[in-house]
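Lab manual, section 2.4: Encoding a predicted structure.

Procedure: take the sequence of the chain (206 residues), apply the prediction step described in section 2.3, and record the output as structure tokens. A sample record is shown.
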Amino acid sequence: MPSKSPIQSRENTERSNFGVGAGALDSPFGEWIGFGLYKYINIFLKGAAMPDIQKSMKLSLAFGLSGAVILPVLYEVYANISAAAGLVLIAVWAVCAGAKFSALKFKEAFMGMVCTLAYAGILGVICYIVIHPKVSDMLNRRSVYFQLSLKQQAYFVLYAVLISLCMFLVWGGIFGVKKAIERFRLNREKTGEYIDKAFDDDEDML
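Recorded output:
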């Protein structure tokens, strides 16, 4: 029987160790499976050029993990300092994410933003469980900690979700403007070509 090459053997070993088939890693959603993170870590450390799907993975991890920490902190700001300030800062996070993802292609950007919200939401609950008791103890030692009612907490979650979805609006707006500028430039170039061709035809007739 023909022997496997060292490269094939190593690749198969890595995939079998993680328990993921080749098809799963090559599928669109497979790019976001945590078992494949070693690929993107190596690319990030080497500084190699990344395709859009890997840039999307990198951005979704960056904004998702930062959002998971920021959102629980901004909840405490919303509850104890200023509700408006907490919501505005969430909007800043969402706008920055939408602007960054607008540089990618449509499918990769959309999937990246969905993963960003999933990371921020799921990991945000874990970070809240860790952050909330410490903030509560710190404020109670210095002054008073204001605990929101369940209804007020539900309103905050609703506001946070709606504002976070604004990243799709920002991304869509920038994406639309870029497409409009690209179409305008293309039409201008075609118009110039038609004019040049018309002058050439007139010269040939003379």
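Check your result against the sample. The two ends are 76 Å apart (CA to CA).
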